[in-house]
Amino acid sequence: MLNKKETYILIAIIIVLIGGFVVLGAYLKKNPQNKGPALPIDAITSSDWVKGDKSAKIVLIEYSDFQCPACAVYQPIVKRLSDEFGNKMAFAYRHFPLSQHQNARLAATASETGGRQNKFWEMHDLLFENQENWSDLSKSKAEELFVKYAETLGLNIEQFKNDLDSNEIKNKVNSDLISGETAKVNSTPTFFLNGKKIQPRSYEEFREMILSQIDTQPDKQ
Fold it and tell me: Which of these, 123, 94, 117, lies nearest to 166 by C-alpha position?
């Protein structure tokens, strides 16, 4: 039979163990485990959402957060560049939801969910264009609004709602996040042009950086 001191020690150990499991459980819930390899920052992968020619020698990769105001500012710039350079460039969007943005992960999931119905870029644009409308909402209210966006895009709403809870989609977002952390991304948006981290401050500067890469590529025979 335990004496009073031993009883207190045992209770303390149990409390510590329970606390540890709670913390671990919360971490795993917030960060679904992904066992896949880190994504390259100088090449397109099969899991990337891409505009342009996937085999192009000019590769622009963006790590972005749908709730980040700066990312919303860059969104029309990147869209304009993607339209301008077309198949001369491959542009890939990767998720990097920042922990201080309460709805960033949900928004990333919503875009991937839209992608399952071939509407990733349409949902991507809606989320950025309406960022101020959902950023400060509770998670449940933000989710309701994202469902409305899905309706405007003509998506199957039942499938959309079900996919929002998909571990596969959550792992896809987490895979992007892990690859960004591996590449030492610490803010958004972060761009890599042919594997080199760049910080363009305007459309014109961005355009010149891409043109300089095109000029260095050998002509196709």
Answer: 117
